[in-house]
Specification:
With 257 residues, this protein is an alpha/beta fold. Helices cover 31% and strands 28% of the residues. The strands form three sheets. Strands 5, 6, 7, 8, 9, 10 and 11 form a seven-stranded mixed sheet that branches. It has a two-stranded parallel sheet with strand order 1-4. Strands 2-3 form a two-stranded antiparallel ribbon. A hairpin with a 2-residue loop joins strand 2 and strand 3. Helix 2 crosses helix 7. It is globular, with a radius of gyration of 21 Å.
Length: 257
């Protein structure tokens, strides 16, 4: 058989195989940045959560389809049935349990930390901060800081994603910001010690997992069991380590509020 014809047949076979796979719609939040995800051309192309969702889709034999959207549109998309799986989410973020979605087991332990500029290594809880603007991500809720925000002692300066928050802090736009620990570690990697941003206090710790739409059209229980297998087999830990996530379960030697 001529090579050109063989390649054409393989392409047709691959296309048919993908077409026969059920589609699973994952939400991707615009405010995510590396190491969680890198978005290129309105689609995720790499990152911890991208690898997790790709591995999950492969485990259950579905074709992943990614819907990139602002964080503030996620609830509407869930209510309208526009997405099937939402990952990197905490039960603490909801006042009411979403009726059409089922929670997975906890997958990641996330720490939100107060971050200071280069050279600011003195541990300090947020209550000790003088009145000032603080770097935050648009659409994110910071329950630990909310009383200080309500009192006007702190003012939010929102950015589109976590990377921009840290870049503005580094550039001196404000004196302090909030970041998850993993993003801070990623931002600091490769920088000389004297140029690294500093974690000053742990603000909050949360268990994050995935939510799967409870619908007969998708393999809800199969997806939940697949996440359990990925955690038990060590596959999830290997993905975390790939992006510097080993510190998720290690205590941080910084002040706590």
């Amino acid at each position: 058989m001529p090579l050109r014809r063989l390649l054409a047949l393989l392409l047709v076979w691959a296309t048919q195989s993908v077409a026969e796979q059920p589609v699973l719609r994952f939400s991707v939040t615009e405010s995510w940045s590396m190491p969680l995800v890198r978005i290129e051309g309105d689609q995720p192309v790499e990152g911890l959560l991208y690898d997790l969702m790709q591995a999950l889709a492969k485990e259950v034999g579905v074709y992943p389809q990614y819907h990139v959207m602002p964080r503030l549109r996620l609830q509407e998309a869930m209510d309208n049935g526009d997405i099937d799986v939402r990952c990197h989410v905490s039960t603490q973020w909801f006042n009411d349990r979403p009726g059409d979605f089922v929670w997975s087991i906890p997958l990641i332990r996330q720490r939100d930390v107060l971050v200071g500029r280069v050279g600011d290594s003195t541990p300090k809880p947020p209550e000790q901060l003088p009145p000032q603007a603080i770097g935050t991500v648009l659409g994110y809720t910071y329950s630990t800081l909310q009383p200080l925000l309500d009192q006007g002692r702190l003012r939010r300066e929102d950015s589109r994603n976590q990377l921009l928050v840290l870049q503005k802090l580094q550039a001196g736009r404000y004196r302090h910001a909030v970041s998850n620990q993993l993003s801070l570690q990623w931002f600091n990697q490769g920088l000389p010690a004297q140029q690294q941003l500093q974690a000053l206090a742990v603000l909050e710790e949360q268990d994050l997992g995935c939510m799967v739409r409870n619908d007969p059209a998708i393999p809800t229980q199969g997806l939940l069991r697949a996440l359990v297998r990925m955690k038990q087999s060590g596959e999830l830990e290997r993905i975390l380590q790939r992006y510097g996530g080993m510190g998720f379960s290690d205590p941080m030697s910084v002040a706590r509020p």
